[in-house]
Each structure stands twice: as structure tokens, then as C-alpha cells.
TrEMBL record:
Pfam family, one: ADH_N
Family (UniProt): Belongs to the zinc-containing alcohol dehydrogenase family.
GO function term, MF aspect, one: zinc ion binding
Cofactor: Zn(2+)
SMART domains: PKS_ER (SM00829)
Domain Enoyl reductase (ER) intervals: 9-341
Domain of life: Bacteria
InterPro entries listed in its UniProt record: ADH-like_C, ADH-like_N, ADH_Zn_CS, CAD-like, ER, GroES-like_sf, NAD(P)-bd_dom_sf
Matches recorded under PROSITE patterns: ADH_ZINC (PS00059)
Lineage, opening ranks: Bacteria, Bacillati, Actinomycetota, Actinomycetes, Micrococcales
Listed name of the protein: alcohol dehydrogenase (NADP(+))
Presence of keyword Repeat: no
Protein's UniProt keywords contain Mitochondrion: no
Length: 347
């Protein structure tokens, strides 16, 4: 076992405080990563605060991890010490089911092993990236291209892939109108990625306070959802809507914005079920769908795409002792657009 420094929550209501956690010894197929940066995802907050169900505490969260390979196991062929790498939301899956064989490990029929709060193969509860080191199977490690500064790369490992995957699956491309609901961590990446994929991008945010940023990220239109005129003006407008909102929104209003065969994809994961009025789906033969992160191959594809197209997250670097405060700001939608923990401050 390796004892490493981490920040953890002792209970659903606790602050995120320094502690020591155990990482397994580096096995033949494992990579030891020295974590340099860890992004703060709203899922970290939902998980610790119990929004999605009971957890085992203390819990270290964080699934946007950027670092450097520090040691490799005897059978590791893919990675060498010193390489810049990332880890996202999964650290293992069965590898045998149809979905795993199709490169869709996030939909592993037996359930993937999440980077934190999951039962690992050895029976322990996985602990995430708010930490100085992590040990991960070589197949669940991603290469961070040189063109992407490690200090801003971490949010790609969740916010990036979670928006890239549905944009690709539902064909965000030239000639297609895409709306992004909520411009926080996931939302700002959805805007940048949909624009880089060639789609015409509209932001639907609670207010117009971030309009200049949205346009700089590639949106050509920007509307406040607090203004009812937005919904009448945009009725039957979009091919694809990506909803990144972490709370309940009025599905009838947002579904009304889809044109024929349009799809509203929920990536936001509010604690309560979202009521979907079926009559809003009948009109225009609309679909309501969900999407979860992305597979390992697609995550690498996304990282390479971002390097090629100069797509990088907008980040605010914080020290580890500011995590609790940063969480409060995320909860107030006061994030521009992803907090990233400088792990060098964790000593
Ligand atoms: P975030 O940074 O907090 O962004 C959410 C945005 O939603 C906010 O910035 C805000 O945007 C808008 N919003 C928040 N509360 C709202 C409300 N009550 N009504 C309307 N709009 C509201 O969170 P995130 O890290 O991007 O994560 C977003 C959601 O996706 C979370 O629920 C998270 O758990 C989930 N998630 C899912 C997956 C997946 O695989 N499906 C992966 C990662 C995260 P504006 O200020 O622009 O209105
Ligand atoms: Zn996440
Ligand atoms: Zn599987």
C-alpha cells in the first residue's frame, strides 16, 4: 500500500479537508500517476452531498485528473515514466460484455468501476483525484497531447468527453443547429466543441451575464431562459439540445424548441426525476435521451480533437484549501468555467 495525501469529505455535510488515503501497490498492469491538477465537477458535489444516494465516507472525489506517469507495472506496455496522462470517470470495466467490446465501457453491462465511490475489483471503495497520486490500470489511462497545457487539461476528462460524446452521436455538424442549456463546466465545453464540430451554436443560460464569453467560445446566439420571449422566439428551432443543468428545468418548454426529429439529450443529473410531458414529444416526433461520459477510445479521440482544434477549457486554478469555497461557488452558478485544484498545494 502507498499512503498518499488527499482531500476528503468525512460526511455528506462536511468540508473537504486534508487526510491520508491508501493506494494499492502498483500491480503488473498498473500505472502510478503523480497528479498535478484535478478539476472540480458538479458530480463531485452531488455525490458527496448524497444527491444520488448513500456513500461510504470518508470519500475523496475528483474524476478530472491530469498528471505524469511516475511508475509502471511489469506488464505495462502503453505508458512510460514521465508521460503526461489523464484519468476520467472510470478506472475499470468487465472488458467482456458487448458494450465493453464495442469500446463503450461507460455502458458496461455489469457497471463500470467509477473513479471514486465505486467498489473496485479488490473490494475496496475507489478514491478519486483530489489527491497527490493514483494507481490505475493501464487501459483506463489517457494520453494528454503535448499541445494541451497540463494545467488546463483536466476538465476535458469529464466535462469534455461528456459533451463531445453526445455531440458526435447525434451529429453536431455543419448545417445543424445545436442549443446548449446551462453554461457552466460541461456547458462551456459543449459550446466550444459543438462550434469546433461545425454546428451553429446557441446558448440558453439563466441570464445574459455570460453572453460575451459564450460568443467568444463560438456561440452565434445567446438567450436568457428567464425571459419567456426566448421560448416563443425559438419554438421548433433546434436539431439537438444538450441540457447540462444540474437542477430540474421545465421539460415542456425546452422540448418545444426541437424541430422535426430533434433530440434533447440530458447530461445534467439532477437529484430528482425530470417530468417529461409525452405530448411535447409527439409534436415533431421529438426524442428525449440521456448520455453518460464516453468510452476510453472516444475520450482519446476527444483529447486529440481538442489538441488539433485548439479547444481548451476555461479554468480557475485554486489551492486545495479552497475546495469547499469553490464548491459553494459552483452551487451558485458562479464558476467561469471550471475550478481546477493545483495539487502542488496539497502538501
Ligand atoms: P456546473 O458547472 O454547475 O454547470 C451547471 C450550469 O447549469 C450552471 O452553470 C448554470 O448555467 C445552470 N444551472 C444551475 N442551476 C440551475 C437552475 N436551477 N436552473 C437553470 N439552470 C441552472 O455543473 P457541471 O459540472 O457542468 O455539471 C452539470 C451537470 O451534469 C451536473 O448535474 C453533473 O452531475 C452532470 N454530469 C453528468 C455527466 C454525465 O455523464 N451525464 C458527467 C458530468 C457531469 P447558467 O448560469 O448558464 O444558467
Ligand atoms: Zn464529472
Ligand atoms: Zn463490460
Amino acid at each position: 500500500m502507498l499512503n498518499v495525501t488527499a482531500y476528503a469529505a468525512a460526511s455528506p455535510t462536511a468540508d473537504i479537508l486534508p487526510t491520508t488515503i491508501e493506494r494499492r501497490d502498483v500491480g503488473p498492469d498498473d500505472v502510478l500517476i503523480e497528479i498535478k491538477y484535478a478539476g472540480i465537477c458538479h458530480s463531485d458535489i452531488h455525490t458527496v452531498r448524497g444527491d444520488w444516494g448513500a456513500q461510504t465516507y470518508p470519500l475523496t472525489v475528483g474524476h478530472e485528473i491530469a498528471g505524469v506517469v511516475a511508475e509502471v507495472g511489469s506488464a505495462v506496455t502503453k505508458w512510460a515514466v514521465g508521460t503526461s496522462v489523464g484519468v476520467g470517470c472510470m478506472v475499470n470495466s468487465c472488458r467482456e460484455c458487448a458494450n465493453c467490446r464495442a469500446g463503450l465501457e461507460q455502458y458496461c453491462e455489469g457497471g463500470n468501476v467509477g473513479t471514486y465511490g465505486s467498489i473496485d475489483r479488490d473490494g475496496t471503495v475507489t478514491q478519486g483525484g483530489y489527491s497527490t497520486h493514483i494507481v490505475v490500470d493501464q487501459d483506463f489511462v489517457l494520453r494528454i497531447p503535448e499541445a494541451i497545457d497540463l494545467a488546463v487539461a483536466a476538465p476535458l476528462l469529464c466535462a469534455g468527453i461528456t459533451t463531445y460524446s453526445p455531440l458526435r452521436h447525434w451529429n453536431a455538424a455543419p448545417g445543424r443547429k445545436v442549443a446548449v442549456v446551462g453554461m457552466g463546466g460541461l456547458g462551456h465545453m459543449a459550446v466550444k466543441l459543438a462550434h469546433a464540430l461545425g454546428a451553429e451554436v446557441t446558448v440558453l443560460s439563466q441570464t445574459l451575464s455570460k453572453e460575451a464569453d459564450g460568443r467568444a467560445f463560438g456561440a452565434t446566439r445567446y438567450f436568457a431562459t428567464s425571459d419567456p420571449a426566448t421560448f416563443s422566439e425559438l419554438t421548433n428551432e433546434f436539431d439537438l439540445i444538450i441540457n447540462t443543468v444540474s437542477a430540474e428545468i421545465d421539460m415542456r418548454a425546452y422540448l418545444s424548441l426541437l424541430r422535426l426529429d430533434g433530440v434533447l439529450v440530458n447530461v445534467g443529473a439532477p437529484p430528482e426525476p425530470l417530468p417529461v410531458p409525452v405530448f411535447a414529444l409527439f409534436t415533431n416526433r421529438r426524442s428525449f435521451a440521456g448520455s453518460s461520459i464516453g468510452g476510453i477510445a472516444e475520450t482519446q479521440e476527444m483529447l486529440d480533437f481538442c489538441a488539433e482544434h485548439g479547444v481548451v477549457p476555461e479554468t480557475e486554478l485554486i489551492a486545495a484549501d479552497q475546495i469547499t469555497e469553490a464548491w459553494l461557488r459552483v452551487l451558485k452558478s458562479d464558476v467561469r468555467y471550471r475550478f481546477v485544484i493545483d495539487v502542488a498545494t496539497m502538501v
